[in-house]
Structures are given as structure tokens and as C-alpha cells.
């Protein structure tokens, strides 16, 4: 009996692209793939677009009984969670259910939690005075010690820790997968656009100008959506190929990917300075008549005043204190693990996001509602 896999967030930007790429890649043998959706319409779309590889499944991730029923009944042994980086309730339901599958079938079980680079940044009290590698031996201890200046971010930090601790206590392999500024056209049937690049456009449109929200020139890791997806798949390949043909143990001689306290994977090809990204995206917004002036001119990207932050917050639907959380901050988190453990190599260098910022703006404007 080999692995049965569940992908959550199938209608989302990352999950949809993962499913789309699944159809184009070769993976070691597994038994079945399920894609979690929340409506009949989405289930139909999964069948229509990805019916060759995936079967839709519907249940409420916040309902522990429903999660247990779905995971145990289908003997799901690998869960990719791409739904919520901020709270741990659903993740704990999945981890408990996976432990039950392990007990009843003897299969090795795996839980991948999708976190986010914000949780390894200044917004969450992570160290930013040096490159913070995703392979650092004491990264778990570093996260445990983080005191986030924003309560919501403390909850997200605690979520990573809870996943690792719960999984370890129940014999489940866990992975903390960390997307950063992801960009590029999503390939799924649902959401096609990312989060942070959208915030830059929303705020700039409202103010008719791009503003910096930080002192200095802090940078942030970036990743094309196809590279983010190829790391998800490389990790899965690593999990599947280190399992024995019956899905349990490590009878293949292949080294299993690091997991638990050593299971952090940042998907990133490098860092870009926020200000350079604002200017690059602002250039297309100016060409489309949505911001005034030339955002690339010297000194054109000014620091937002308190009043401007208030207006940016209104455009983003958040208080001015949280604007920087959406489109700024300092993050020195640096990807090593994918390359070292999984031979993952991103295809797009970091400055590709600057070179294609115009296309990203066009994509966002074509897909933004309101
Ligand atoms: N995109 C990025 O740049 C980025 C960066 C860092 C971290 N992340 C994290 O990665 C995860 C996926 O991001 P994304 O960009 O793919 O987001 P997205 O496009 O908004 O997709 C979110 C997915 O989660 C599903 N979902 C939301 N609440 C759910 C619930 N209670 N039960 C079941 N499914 C639920 C959505 O279903 P519906 O379509 O039915 O709403 C959708 O499929 C998120 O946790 C996000 O914070 C993303």
C-alpha cells in the first residue's frame, strides 16, 4: 500500500499552481491524490481541469471529526496544508488524524504546513541582523524565542511551533514550507494572483503614488510561483522516494528530507529591496495612468507619513500600524535547504521580479475586483 496524498487550498494561487504543475511532472509511485475544495462548483472544476491526477474532496478543516473521518477513511498519509498560516487549529486536527492512519496502517505519515516569510521577519521578531538560513540547526529554538511586535504574528510563529511539537509527539513527519513574495501568473482554476504584490498595487492606486514604509532599504526574499511549486514537488519527490514501496519506513536507501525541528524550507531565489520593487511596479502603474510622476526618478519613492499610512491602510482594509505588514519590513531569511537536501534549483533569479514587474502589474489589474 503506497501513499495517498491530500492537497488543501486547491482553488488558491499556490495550491492551484501546484495541481497544474502536478500534471506536468513525474513523481515516484503513489496511490491517490485528493484535492480539498469548499464548494460543488470547485469540485467540478477539479474534475474538469485536473481529473487525470486528482479527485476532489470536501470537508470542513476546522471540524476535527470531519478531518478525522476524511483522512482515516481514505487512508491519507501525506497532507499538504496551504490554507492558513496564522492559526494552528486545523493543522492539529490533520496531524492527529495522520497519527491514527500511521497506527492503523503502519504507513509513515507526513504533514506539510505552509507558513510565510513574514513569520521569519522583523514583523515577527525574527533576527534580521544577518542572513537567517533555513538550515540553521537551532531555527526551532530561534522561533520559540521570537517575540512578535504584532500579536497576529505571534500567533503565526506559535503555529509553526505547534505543528512541529504536535507532529513530533505523535510520530508524524512535519515540514514548515515558507513561501515569500511569490509572483507570476497562477495556473489553477481559482485565484491567479499573489498577496503582497497586490497590496503594492492597491495602495499605490489609492494614493496615486508608491511610498516606502520602512527606514533604510530593507529587502525581502522573492520567488516565482513556478519555482515555489517546484520546491513543493521536490519535497514530495523526496518524501515518496525515501519511503519503501509499501509506503512505510526508509527501505530505499534514499535520505529522507529533513523534517520536524530540521524541516524548514524557504522557497526563494534571493532578495530584492522593497523600494526597487515599488519603483519597478510604479513604472507600469504610471504608464497605465494610475500613479503620477516617474517612480524611478531619484527620491521619487518617499517615506509614507502617518497621514499617508492611514490612507494606505484604508485601501488595504487595515489600520495604519499594519500597512508595513502587507508591503514592507525586513526579512533576511535565506534558502539553502531545498538546494542541499533536494537538489532544488530555482529557474528565475531574484531580479526577474523587477524585470517583469510590468507584467505583474498588468496581471494584477486584470484580476483585481474593486
Ligand atoms: N501567495 C503568497 O505570496 C504567499 C506568501 C506567503 C505565505 N502564503 C501562504 O500560503 C497559503 C496559500 O496562499 P495562496 O496565495 O494560495 O492563497 P489564496 O490564493 O488566497 O488561497 C487560499 C486557499 O485556501 C482555501 N481556504 C481558505 N480558508 C479555508 C478554510 N477555512 N478551509 C478550507 N480551505 C480554505 C481557499 O479556498 P477558497 O477558494 O474556497 O476561498 C483557497 O483555496 C496561505 O496560508 C498564505 O498565507 C502565501
TrEMBL record:
One Gene Ontology term of the molecular function aspect: aldehyde dehydrogenase (NAD+) activity
Domain of life the protein comes from: Eukaryota
One Pfam assignment: Epimerase
Record-linked InterPro entries: Epimerase_deHydtase, NAD(P)-bd_dom_sf, NAD(P)-dependent_oxidoreduct
Domain NAD-dependent epimerase/dehydratase, chain residue ranges per copy: 5-237
GO cellular component, one term: cytoplasm
Coiled-coil features, chain-numbered ranges: none
UniProt-listed PANTHER family: NAD(P)-BINDING DOMAIN-CONTAINING PROTEIN-RELATED (PTHR48079:SF6), PROTEIN YEEZ (PTHR48079)
Name by which UniProt lists this protein: NAD-dependent epimerase/dehydratase domain-containing protein
Amino acid at each position: 500500500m503506497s501513499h495517498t496524498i491530500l492537497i488543501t487550498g486547491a482553488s488558491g494561487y499556490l495550491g492551484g499552481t501546484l495541481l497544474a504543475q502536478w500534471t506536468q511532472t513525474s513523481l515516484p509511485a503513489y496511490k491517490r491524490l485528493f484535492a480539498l475544495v469548499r464548494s460543488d462548483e470547485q469540485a467540478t472544476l477539479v474534475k474538469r481541469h485536473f481529473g487525470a491526477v486528482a479527485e476532489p474532496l470536501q470537508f470542513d478543516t476546522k471540524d476535527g471529526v470531519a478531518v478525522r473521518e476524511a483522512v482515516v477513511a481514505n487512508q491519507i498519509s501525506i497532507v499538504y496544508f496551504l490554507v492558513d498560516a496564522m492559526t494552528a487549529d486545523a493543522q492539529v486536527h490533520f496531524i492527529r488524524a495522520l497519527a491514527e492512519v500511521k497506527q492503523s496502517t503502519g504507513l509513515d505519515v507526513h504533514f506539510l504546513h505552509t507558513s510565510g516569510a513574514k513569520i521569519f521577519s522583523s514583523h515577527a521578531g525574527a533576527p534580521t541582523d544577518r542572513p537567517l538560513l533555513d538550515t540553521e540547526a537551532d531555527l526551532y529554538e530561534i522561533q520559540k524565542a521570537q517575540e512578535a511586535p504584532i500579536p497576529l504574528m505571534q500567533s503565526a510563529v506559535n503555529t509553526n511551533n505547534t505543528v512541529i511539537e504536535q507532529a513530533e509527539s505523535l510520530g508524524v513527519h512535519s515540514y514548515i514550507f515558507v513561501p515569500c513574495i511569490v509572483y507570476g501568473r497562477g495556473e489553477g482554476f481559482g485565484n491567479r494572483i499573489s498577496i503582497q504584490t497586490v497590496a503594492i498595487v492597491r495602495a499605490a492606486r489609492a494614493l496615486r503614488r508608491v511610498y516606502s514604509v520602512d527606514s533604510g532599504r530593507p529587502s525581502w526574499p522573492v520567488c516565482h510561483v513556478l519555482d515555489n511549486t517546484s520546491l513543493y514537488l521536490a519535497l514530495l519527490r523526496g518524501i515518496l522516494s525515501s519511503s519503501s514501496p509499501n509506503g512505510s519506513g526508509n527501505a530505499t536507501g534514499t535520505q529522507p528530507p529533513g523534517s520536524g525541528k530540521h524541516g524548514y524550507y524557504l522557497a526563494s531565489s534571493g532578495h530584492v529591496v522593497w523600494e526597487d520593487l515599488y519603483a519597478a511596479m510604479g513604472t507600469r502603474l504610471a504608464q497605465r495612468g494610475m500613479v503620477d510622476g516617474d517612480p524611478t526618478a531619484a527620491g521619487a519613492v518617499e517615506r509614507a507619513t502617518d497621514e499617508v499610512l492611514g490612507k494606505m491602510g484604508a485601501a488595504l482594509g487595515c489600520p495604519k500600524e499594519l500597512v508595513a505588514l502587507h508591503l514592507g519590513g525586513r526579512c533576511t531569511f535565506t534558502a539553502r535547504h531545498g538546494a542541499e537536501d533536494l537538489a532544488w534549483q530555482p529557474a528565475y533569479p531574484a531580479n526577474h521580479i523587477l524585470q517583469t514587474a510590468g507584467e505583474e502589474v498588468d496581471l494584477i489589474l486584470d484580476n483585481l475586483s474593486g
